[in-house]
Design a protein that fits this description.
Chain B: Residues 119-273 form the Cell envelope-related transcriptional attenuator domain. The structure holds two protein chains of two kinds. By secondary structure, chain A is mainly α. Chain A has helices at 14-23, 29-47, 49-65, 78-90, 93-105, 115-138, 141-151, 157-164, 168-185. In chain B, a hairpin with a 5-residue loop joins β6 (151-152) and β7. The longest helix of chain B has 20 residues, at 254-273. The chains are: A mainly alpha, B alpha+beta. Chains A and B meet through α2, α3, α6, α7 and α9 of A and α1, α2, β10 and α8 of B.
Chain lengths: 196, 351
């Protein structure tokens, strides 16, 4: 009367999932399962945990509604998702800057560091944090997106370019400018590592 | 330590682990995927949807098929009734009977807003042959783009004809508008219309004293909290609902779910046909009446007669979906595939 079949193998590529979700919308949930936590971590760094939850939800709704426009020749959906995240984060531009400014005044209370890490990094890392945060607060939206997609999301240049819809050359120039400003804020604390 | 390393270090310090609340965001996505698109008409209903309701959508066919022949006996129970549409309607032919079934849900907080809080997530055109031996259930996907005729809204406004998703008809003008929309778009004369709320299924199965399902393999699915051995089991309402909602078992497809629903449907019909204890029947009818809206034309005699016929004939149900394709204008919507859809409705009307 009822037939229960053996589950089909899950498609591996993100693009497969997105293609499948066009006919079977609920398949999109698999993409959520893959990347929601990763995106949450990234957004929680930039905007804090309260905003992050809703923003990640919103990101997937936007992505879902645009799934028909996804370029299926791109197997990895991360640049696309980070692109949407960046747009949504930019709406909170002021809150983000305020968050970084707040860090310049008070020590991080939400740092979960092991004593070992503390010893390794030394006091200096803690000392430069307010300076770093102040520099982040002052960056332009575009520069900050590039810098943080590279430093915090760990995307390579070409994927940052894809995510933000800008040429790779622009990624490089924005990154250089952003890093220069950060280093200026640090007062060139490490002149030996001025250029990569 | 270079600037990027320090920046990464700062980032790690600011990072938070995903909370349980992400599950809520996942549900939000699933609701959207299941067609939660009511924002335009009812802004207060947006964003939020009880996810299970969409998952249980097909299950309504089950409840409906049982409800149609038996429970429409609301008679003295004072359930809601509506009037059939007015104006030009397809002609009535022969002894076959066509019933429009609507599965609707009601947001828990909207009870005081009345019918406006209800959405139709499932529309099924059910045709019972003249000899009542055959029933064909054609489901009309809720995001089908169709022309919704001029309807009167609950607050008395006249809403002009326009293109929209078929399930908007119910939101605009309730059961009567949905009825009119289905008649004008399919050309099939609809004799009666019934709206059933999802929350009724569980109660219906319980009122039947449970139903029997047969499984080839044992199921242990934490997602739907279903645990059943292989072979025959008698399940209560809650388990039956979980059974219809199984999504992560089998191939996880809609087709597999529709199969299970058909099976449950048949199990319920079987149970109803054996319900000869008047007390049990009465209690079943009472339960069903609370979750049903129908037209006044389905009076007690009609329904009792229908119930007897279906019991005697041992009606066999065929479940179909109207042929469709992604809409040309908006790939997130669908449109009926012509001429296949028109042919299907012609066949249905001739059955």
């Amino acid at each position: 009367m009822v037939s229960l079949m053996i589950p089909l193998a899950t498609p591996r590529l993100d693009s497969d999932l997105i293609a499948e979700s066009r006919a079977r919308p609920e398949a999109f949930a698999a993409l959520f399962d893959r990347y929601a936590a990763m995106l949450y971590r990234y957004v929680s760094r930039r905007l804090g945990p309260e905003v992050a939850e809703d923003l990640v939800g919103e990101t997937f709704l936007v992505a879902f509604r645009r799934r028909d426009r996804y370029d299926l020749t791109r197997p990895d959906a991360r640049p696309w998702l980070f692109g949407i995240v960046s747009k949504l984060v930019s709406r909170h531009h002021r809150d983000e800057a305020a968050r970084y400014r707040a860090l310049t005044r008070s020590p991080l209370d939400d740092v979960a560091e092991s004593p070992a890490e503390r010893v390794e990094d030394g006091v200096r890392a803690t000392a430069v944090r307010p300076l770093l945060a102040a520099a982040l607060a002052r960056l332009s939206k575009g520069d900050r997106d590039v810098l943080l997609l590279i430093a915090w999301a760990g995307l390579p240049y070409d994927e940052v370019a894809q995510a933000l819809g800008i040429p790779v050359g622009t990624v490089r120039s924005r990154l250089n400018r952003a890093r220069r400003k950060v280093r200026e804020a640090l007062g060139h604390t490490n002149p030996l590592r001025d250029e990569e | 330590m270079d600037d990027l390393t320090m920046l990464r270090d700062l980032g790690r310090g600011l990072e938070h682990e995903p909370p349980a609340g992400l599950a809520r965001q996942r549900r939000r996505l699933l609701d959207e995927a299941a067609g939660g698109r009511r924002r335009r008409l009812t802004p207060w209903a947006g964003g939020w949807r009880a996810g299970w309701i969409a998952l249980a959508a097909v299950a309504v066919v089950t409840a409906a098929l049982v409800v149609v022949p038996t429970v429409l006996l609301r008679g003295t129970t004072g359930a809601h009734t509506v009037a059939p549409p007015t104006g030009d309607r397809p002609p009535k032919k022969g002894g076959a009977l066509t019933v429009l079934l609507l599965g609707s849900d009601r947001r828990p907080t909207s009870a005081h807003v009345g019918d406006l809080g209800e959405r139709s997530d499932l529309m099924v055109l059910l045709r019972l042959s003249a000899d009542r031996k055959r029933a064909t259930a054609v489901s009309l996907p809720r995001d089908s783009m169709v022309r919704i005729p001029q309807c009167r809204s609950a607050d008395g406004r006249t809403v002009a004809a326009h293109q929209d998703m078929i399930n908007q008809a119910y939101a605009i003008g309730g059961l009567t508008c949905a009825w009119k929309t289905v008649e004008t778009t399919t050309g099939v004369r609809v004799d009666h219309a019934v709206a059933i709320r999802y929350d009724g299924l569980e109660k219906l199965v319980d009122a039947l004293g449970g139903v029997e399902v047969t499984l080839p393999h044992a199921v242990n699915d934490p997602k739907s909290k279903l645990k059943l051995p292989a072979g025959r089991s008698v399940v209560d309402g809650r388990t039956a609902v979980a059974y219809t909602r199984l999504r992560y078992v089998g191939d996880g497809s809609d087709t597999a779910r529709i199969k299970r629903n058909t099976a449950l449907m048949q199990a319920m019909l079987k149970k109803v046909s054996r319900l000869d204890d008047p007390a049990a029947m009465a209690s079943f009818v009472r339960v069903a009446a609370t979750s049903v809206t129908t037209d006044a034309g389905l009076d007690l005699d009609t329904m009792l007669g229908l119930a007897r016929d279906v019991q005697r004939a041992g009606t066999r149900v065929t479940a179909l979906t109207v042929p469709w394709r992604p809409s040309v204008k908006d790939p997130n919507r669908i449109e009926w595939q012509q001429p296949d859809a028109a042919r299907l409705f012609e066949r249905l009307a001739a059955m």
